[in-house]
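Contributing new records

If you add data, match the layout below exactly. Sequence lines come first and carry their own label; structure lines follow with theirs. Keep one chain per record. Anything else will be rejected by the validation script.
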Amino acid sequence: MKKSDILNTAKNTALVVIGTLILAFGTAVFIIPFDLIVGGMSGFAIVIDKVVPFEFVTVDLIITVMTWSLFLLGLAVLGKGFAAKTLISTVIYPPFITIFSKLNDPDVFGGIFFLQDSPHKDLVLIIAALFGGVLIGFGCALAFMGGGSTGGTDIIAFTVCKFIKRLRSSVVIFMIDTIPIALGVFILNDLVLSLLGIISVFVSALVIDKVFVGGQKALTAQIISESYEEINNEIINRLERTTTLVDVTGGYSKEPKKLVMVTFSFRQYSELLNIINRCDPKAFVTVSKAHEINGEGWTR
């Protein structure tokens, strides 16, 4: 194995480990103590904990059992490749949920993480929902960036989609995550907690989108111009961005034309417009936000 491959593997493993630790911390400190049902395993665990009358059945125990059960399900149904991606999180997540849960004790670190005893009681629930969502989203995003998977109830969705191929995994994941949220409204009998849980879900989804998908803010421009060669050269030399030249045909004129396509950063937007205006003020330009960019000059 090459040195670069070893370093890349180490980096990806570190991202998954750190991401899983952040996910466990956010869940154990901000979500579980306040019964905020945010979907996924923690949501199911909170609901089950409220229903099962036995004292030895705790949220962290339920999460441990569910994590390993779903991992074995993924290994059996989805194969070794998928199981390998979830292995690190499966090993790290349950024990650190238990470890971080110990922080919710007034005698640990001076009770700094014991938010239930905070003098700002009116704000504690809102803070817990927001910061819990941020940490969960950030932890998941880091794990995804490392090529890993947090597994959990997503394994159920992928298993269902494997046997019912017409279903989309994103839809099934959404449906599964809504189950504990819906049950929580009736079991907890507290609409405020349920609504705060939903807010936390949206915050975590937003953070995942910004960190994992939107880490590189960029735009893509499509330029049709008679002066395409000059525009193309200016973009390459001045913006230091590579371009793609595409043969197109005018829908109305039926004439052959050249389309210059380039992806560039937000800060280069005005400079690109200046180049186009200088080369051909009559050029036809469309600009759209790039959802994800991978490749040389961006991220791999």
